[in-house]
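Aim 2 progress update. The chain analyzed this quarter is reproduced below.
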Amino acid sequence: MAAVNAAFWAGKRVLLTGHTGFKGSWAAIWLGRMGAQVTGIALPPDQAPALFALAGVERRITSRFVDLRNPDAVASAVGGHAFDLVLHMAAQPIVRTSVEDPIGTFETNIMGTAHLLQALRSQGALKAVLAITSDKVYANNETGRAFVEGDNLGGKDPYSASKAATEIIVQSFAKSYFQAVPMGTARGGNVIGGGDFSRDRLVADIVRAARGGEPVVLRHPEATRPWQHVLDCLAGYFRHIEALATDPATPRALNFGPKPGGAEVSVGELATLGVAALGGQAWRHEPDPTSLEAKSLAIDASLARKVLGFESRLDAPEAVALTMDWYRRQAMGEDALALCLEQIEGYESRP
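Predicted structure tokens:
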């Protein structure tokens, strides 16, 4: 089965929030390639370099810089425009940043979602809305068991709590105001891929260290995460919203995680693979006893496989290899947009 139904997206009017971020930029490029009419709303990129600028995303879609914390600005950006589909990806996505600024994280992730959904109430042509949350929405007791969609929500750090709260916000709006519009949430794993230059993200830290001739510093090399390539994650999101728009029996919440049967890969093991691919120095361990980050995290994506016929196509070593190839070639002067399009095409052609 094809990873994504390109014909479904051709001509669709798509509102994409967070289009200036790492995943959002990849989403904008891929949706545009499939013929969707994409309107993006988000804050400007908060770091340089940024994939949004490197790949010229602003020239490929209708881009508006909007602060989701401002309800009037959101209403103005959404009002007067008709959308078929909404993919809500905008967020403050970093755990350590949420610990430093919990109120800002709650304002962006919780109230930003509420402001968007309130603005969407005036939309008459909506076919489906999908809000992206996280694998960290679950109450994690560190047993190592993979979480399923029916497990309790929780969050011991502000980011995780904000995403669990987002799940409840979406459910409440769906039941109160959007009975005729399918509205769901997608809980993705830890995403890697070319073009992520964010602070406190493992792959971005590896790349910066390698380019600077320094060893990357790891806080928790023993920690495990459900690593998946950005194209696997986005393909899951796209398939989920396709199903929401066409089949009323589609589950409203779905996990999207690594390729089934793949071995768990620790932070240290992923860093070793990345350093080897880029020719950098070996990583160094500097423990952070104050960290709230979970040591073990895994999600069970079998429900998406059952109801959508979708599963990730890349295992962790393949995802790392594809990611590091992007960075290596981009550093040698190849065009960021061309690299993204090449990898999207290659992904689509995989069996």
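The first helix runs from residue 6 to 9. The chain has 13 helices and 13 strands. These observations will guide the mutagenesis experiments scheduled for the next reporting period.
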